[in-house]
Amino acid sequence: MSFFTGVVVPIGAVFIGWYFANLKAEEKQQKDEQIQRMKLLRMLQQELETVIDQYETEGKYLLRNSIKGQAINNSPVFNADDHEAFFNLLWKYMRGYESLNTAIEAIPTIFPKQEEILKLSKTFFIHDSRKYDKLNTEMNKHIDEILMLSVQQIIDAAKPLLVEVNNQIVINSQNKL
């Protein structure tokens, strides 16, 4: 009997304490992950609403990269298995930014700078400033078209992503621990 009370009971008590401590730690970790997921989703929601609103009201884009999208993409609290539709939309949105950055970086190589246009116009004896202005206007029009195609790609991806983010927020809110 003394073996039982002297050895088995303390070992059993340690095991039971370890079990309940692990259970509490796991619950805390799940709650922390849920809080982190909600923070990231709310930040992405705000970014998407701002980007869409800014584009629709002023016709401008605000960002060259989706900081919140990258944070979610690199976050361990989201995974592609559980959030497949969400990640597909997020990646489409982020590809829009890659397209925009590629367009911005390619514009100087596609279109020469204004000073070079002026030099070319003088080289080809186009001294008329109206012709230079027309050439400059056409070049700016083409640059705007290239940028707007990329920005439109971002907006087209942002709208369904915003709906999915709102759905994820509702799902995450219902899963209270």
Explain this structure:
- By secondary structure, this protein is an all-alpha fold.
- It has five helices and no strands.
- The protein has helices at 2-58, 67-74, 84-110, 114-123, 129-174.
- α1 runs antiparallel to α2.
- The longest helix is centred in the N-terminal third of the chain and has 57 residues, at 2-58.
- The model has no long low-confidence stretch (mean pLDDT 81).
Helices and strands, with pairings:
Blueprint: H1 2-58, H2 67-74, H3 84-110, H4 114-123, H5 129-174
List the main descriptive attributes of the protein structure presented here.
177 residues, single chain, mainly alpha, 84% helix
Q: How many DSSP H or I helices?
A: 5
Largest β-sheet summary: none
Note the run of SSEs as H and E.
HHHHH
- The whole-number mean of residue pLDDT values reads 81
Class computed from helices, strands and strand pairing: mainly alpha
Rg is: 28 Å
Got a strand count?
A: 0
Provide a brief overview of the structure.
Helix content is 84%, strand content 0%.
